[in-house]
Amino acid sequence: MQFANNPTLRSWLTVPENSDFPIQNIPFGIFRTKELSPRVATRIGDTVVDLQSLAEARFFADLEAPVEAFAQAVLNPFMALGKPVTNAVRNRIAEIFSGTPDSGKQKLIHKALYALQEVELLMPVNVGDYTDFYSSREHATNIGTMFRGAENALMPNWLHLPVGYHGRASSIVVSGTPVHRPKGQTMPAGAEKPVYGPSKLLDFELEMAFVVGKSSELGTPVSTAQAEEHIFGLCLFNDWSARDIQKWEYVPLGPFLGKSFASSISPWIVTLEALDPFRISGPEQDPEVLPYLKYEGNRRYDINLEVQIQVEGQEAKTISRSNYKYMYWNLFQQLAHHTVNGCNINTGDMCASGTISGTTLDSYGSMLEISGGGKRSLTMPDGSERKFLKDGDTVIMKGFGEKDGVRIGFGEVSGKVLPAK
Amino acid sequence: MQFANNPTLRSWLTVPENSDFPIQNIPFGIFRTKELSPRVATRIGDTVVDLQSLAEARFFADLEAPVEAFAQAVLNPFMALGKPVTNAVRNRIAEIFSGTPDSGKQKLIHKALYALQEVELLMPVNVGDYTDFYSSREHATNIGTMFRGAENALMPNWLHLPVGYHGRASSIVVSGTPVHRPKGQTMPAGAEKPVYGPSKLLDFELEMAFVVGKSSELGTPVSTAQAEEHIFGLCLFNDWSARDIQKWEYVPLGPFLGKSFASSISPWIVTLEALDPFRISGPEQDPEVLPYLKYEGNRRYDINLEVQIQVEGQEAKTISRSNYKYMYWNLFQQLAHHTVNGCNINTGDMCASGTISGTTLDSYGSMLEISGGGKRSLTMPDGSERKFLKDGDTVIMKGFGEKDGVRIGFGEVSGKVLPAK
Fold this sequence. Notes:
2 copies of one chain form a homodimer. Chain A has 421 residues and is α+β, with helices and mostly antiparallel strands. Chain A has 9 helices and 26 strands. The first copy, chain A, is globular, with a radius of gyration of 21 Å. Chains A and B meet through strand 7, strand 10 and helix 7 of A and strand 7, strand 10 and helix 7 of B.
C-alpha cells in the first residue's frame, strides 16, 4: 500500500465531512488565478495546493521531478515523468500535509495554498487521441433492444471484444464550460428529405475516462498486466450526444457529429493508485475471452456514480445512481485491446468507458435509456417534463468510492446547455 | 494569381524534367541531417531548402514570419501564422529561387541547400485530430455493393452528407516508415468463435488528406466559403486497412483496430494555393444538398493518382490510376460538415478523403475493390498473385496535377509491409 493510501492519515488542512478530497486522494489538476499563470495543483478538502510553488521551494527536489514539470498549463509533462516519480510526488504531498506541519517550512507551504473559490480550474490534460468504448453490458443491451429488439440486442462481437471507436479530442472541455445545443442534419420520422437545425434530442452519457501517462511504441501492444503502468488516472466524463444527428449519420462508420460538439470532464485526475481500495473482482466473462484479453486480480472498481439535472433556478434533481462496476470490459482489457494491433498510445490520450448503466431504470446512464427512447418522461422540480435535455438544464455528474471510512471522489463534472447559436 | 504560381517562372536551381517540385510548387516539410536539428524546409527539384537558415539570414524578416516558426520539428507553428504570412513566405521563396540569383546573397542562399539524398524527411505535422471521410461515390458504391448488393449500395444518408468518422492520429507515420502486419481478433467464415492472429486481409486505401492551418473556435461552424482560409494544404494518404479485423469489429460503432495500426502520408504538404490551377467544377449533386453544404466556384481538383506495388527485388508495378476528382463531396464541404455542429478544428488536424476510386477496375483505390472482395487476383512481375498485400510488399502512391506545362506534385508515400511481430 502506498503511504498516501493509509486510511489512518489525517491532514492538518481542514477537510469537510464527506469531502471527495481527503489526504488519501491527492488528485492532479491545473489551475490559475488572476496573478498566477496556469500550473499543476492538487486538492485537499477545499484547498487547492500550488505544486509549482512547492517544487520551486524544493519539496520534490530529491524525486526527479523538475520544477518545469509543474510550471505547465497541462499535466502531460508531469504524467510523462512516469509512475515511480508521480507516485513519489503523491506520497510526498501526503507527508507534507499529514501529521504535524513542519514549522520551519510553514511559510513556504502556506504560500502555496488557495481557497477553491479563489482559483480557476482549467482543462487538465492536452488530449492527443480520444477513444470511447461501449463496455457496459446493461447499456449495450438497453440500446440494442431499442434498435434491434431484445433477442438481437448485443451484436455478435460484443461479448468477444471491448467495442470502441475514435472520438473527437479537440472538443473535450473542463467542467463548468457551457455547451451550445448543436445544429446539424437530421432525418425526421416520415420525412422524405433531411433537415438542418438545432438538435431536438440532446442527451448526456454518464461515463468515466482514463488518462494515459506512459506512452507506448507503435507496433508494440500493451498487455492487460502492463496496462496499469500506462494508466495515470481517471476522471468523470459526460459524453454529450445529439441522438437525432447520431441516428441519421452513424451508419456505416459510427458516431461523428452527434458526439463531436462537446465532451465534458471533471477537473481533477484521480490516480489509479488512489483508487486501489475500490478494486473488486468480476464480472464473469462467458464466453471465455481470447488470451490477450485475460487478466489477473481485481480489475473492476466500485465507484458510486450519480447524475443530476438542475433546471434553471431550481434545486438539482438526482435522476440516476449508477456505478463504475457495471463494466463488462475493464479498463485494462480496453487498453490491451486498443493496442493489440500495435496502435501506439501517447501521454494525455483519453479513453472513456462508454455509458455506464446499471440494471434498473433509476441507474441508467443516458436520457435515451431513462426515457425509453422518448416514451417516458421525468418530472423536474418545477413540474416540467424531460425526455431529453432542454436549454438551460445543467447536467451534473458525481462519483466516489468509500471504504474503511475513507471516501475518495472526483468532485463533479457539470455543464449547462445553452441554446443553439 | 499568386506570384509563385506564374507558369513562366523558372528556377536557377536544377529541376529535372517531370519533377513534381518546380518553382511553382514550394511545398512545406520537415527535415534533419546528422548535423542539423529538425526544421522547416521546402523542396525545389531535388534540392531541399533549409528555411530556418534563410529565416536566420533575414530573408523573411519583413513578413511577420519569425525565425522560431521555422526552427521547429513540425509545421504547426508555421501554419498557425496564417495564410497571409505563409503565402507571403511561399512567394518570397519563389522570388529568391527564380530569375537571376542575387549575387550579394549567393553565399547565404547556398548555405541553405541540401541534396535530397543527404537529408532525412520527418513527419511534417503534429496531428491533433484525424478524420477520415468516405466521399468517393465510386468507392462507396463498390463497397456497398459487396456488402449489401447493388440496389442498396449507398446508405440513405450518403447523398445528403459527407459521411466521415474519427480516426487514430497517433499512428500516422511519414512515407518510408515500414508497417508491421497487425495482429488482432477476427471471425473466420463459418467459425463459431473468433480467433487471434495476424491479419490475413491487409489492404491499402488510396486517399488524399488536407491539413488544417487556421484553428476555429468551439461552437463556431466554418462555412464552405471560409474553409479555404482554414485549409493549409494537402498530402497523399495511405489508409492501411486490415479487412478481416475491420469486418468483425466495425458494427455498430465503425472502424477501429482495422485501421489504427498505421496510416502513411507523403512528407511534403502542398499548399492549397499551389493547387489552384487544377480546380475543376462539379460533380452535379442530386439530390440538392442542404444550404450549409452548398458552395461556389470550382472546388474539385484534377490530380492524377497512382498506386504501385513493389514486390521485394522486383520492379514496382502500377496497379491503379485514379484521380482526386472522383470526390462527390469536396474538401470544403467536408470541413463545413465537420464543423456544422460547432466542433472546433486545430492547426495540424488532418482530414482524409476516403478511398478515391474511379469508375473502372484499373482505377480502384483498394485491393478489396480491385480483387472484388478476394475473388480476383493481380499477377505481379515475379508471377506471384495478389488479392491482398503480402509481407515484403511495398505500396507506393503518387500524385500530380499538370496544366499550362507546369506539373505540381506530391512526390510519393511509400510503406513496406513487414511480417507481424
